[in-house]
Amino acid sequence: MKDNVILEVKNVEKFFYGNKKLFQKDRPVVKAVNDVSFTINEGETFGIVGESGCGKSTLGRTVIRLLNPTNGQVIYKGTDLATLSGEEMRKLRQEIQIIFQDPFSSLQPRMPVGEIIGEAVREHGLVSKEEFDDYIDQVMDNCGLQPFHKDRYPHEF
Question: Among 55, 52, 10, which residue's Cα sits nearest to residue 30?
Answer without folding.
Answer: 55
